C-alpha cells in the first residue's frame, strides 16, 4: 500500500541522522515514491539497499603534501651529508640530483618487490656513487636521517582535520596508499579504522585487488565504499573500476580528458556535501 510505504518511509527518515543520510537512502526513497523501490516493511529488501559506510583516503597529496615533505627531508639530509663529508663532491650535490637518482633506481628495481624504504636507501647509495665515494654504510645512515626528517612536522592540508573529524562521526575512515606515510607519525593517530599500504601486498592502486583487500579490512562490500584521492587514474578511476564510488580530489591539477571519475572536488571541505548527494 502506498500509504504504508509513505508512513514507513517517514518513520525511517525520522530515525536517520539529519546529516549525512546514508547514501543509498535517497535513491531508495525516490524509487519508492516512483513505485519501484524496496518494500520498507521487508527487512530483507531494506538490507539490499547499498549505503555508504566507509570512506578511504589516499595519503600523499591528498592528506599531506608529500612533495614538500620529501624535498625538505632530502635538503636536511643533504646538509648533514655535507657536514659529514665536506668538499666539492657533496657541495655540488642538490636535491634535484637526489630525486633523479631515486627515480632511476626505482626504474631499475621496478617489479622486484623492494620496499619504499629500501628503495630510498638504494637511491642514497647511488647518490654517494655520484660523489665518487661509494659507501653502503653511509647510505644506510643517510636513510635513517631521511626517515627522521620525513616525519617531522608532516604538512597536513588545512582542510584535512576538520573533514576527518566531521566524517568520522558517521563513517568508518580508512587510508589506502601507494606510499608509506604512517598515520600515527603524520599527526593522524587513531583516525583510521583500516590502513592499507600497497607495498605490504605487492600490488598498487589502481589494481582492483588492492581495493578488494581494503574492503575486506572493513568488512564491507564495494558498493558501501568511497575512495577519495588526488590521482584520477589511481584513486578515483581505480575505485570506480573496483565497484566503489570514486572521488577525485583535484587540488589544482589540470583537468584530464581521457578519464572520467564519478565525482570531483577541489577541497575536502566539499566532501560532506558531495557524500550527501551521492547515490
Ligand atoms: Mg596521492
Topology (elements, then pairings):
Blueprint: H1 2-15, H2 23-33, H3 43-47, E1 54-57, H4 66-84, H5 88-91, H6 95-109, H7 116-130, H8 136-150, H9 160-167, E2 172-177, E3 194-197, H10 208-218, E4 225-229, H11 232-241, E5 245-249, E6 263-265, H12 271-277
Notes on the protein architecture:
By secondary structure, this protein is an alpha/beta fold. The chain folds into 3 domains: 2-47, no CATH class; 54-64 and 156-277, 3-Layer(aba) Sandwich (Rossmann fold); 66-150, DNA polymerase, domain 1, CATH 1.10.150. It has helices spanning 2-15, 23-33, 43-47, 66-84, 88-91, 95-109, 116-130, 136-150, 160-167, 208-218, 232-241, 271-277, and strands at residues 54-57, 172-177, 194-197, 225-229, 245-249, 263-265. It has a 6-stranded parallel β-sheet with strand order 3-2-1-4-5-6, with helices on one face. Helix 11 (232-241) links the parallel strand 4 (225-229) and strand 5. The chain is elongated. The protein starts with a helix and ends with a helix. Mean pLDDT is 85; it is low at 1-38.
CATH class bucket of the largest domain:
Alpha Beta
Spatial order of strands in the largest sheet: 3-2-1-4-5-6
User: How far apart are the first and last residues' alpha carbons, in Å?
Assistant: 25 Å
Mass-distribution shape: elongated
Describe the biggest sheet?
6 strands, parallel
By secondary-structure content and strand pairing, the structural class works out as: alpha/beta
In CATH terms, the superfamily of the largest domain is HAD superfamily/HAD-like
Low-confidence stretches are 1-38
Q: Which architecture of the largest domain per CATH?
A: 3-Layer(aba) Sandwich
CATH topology term of the largest domain: Rossmann fold
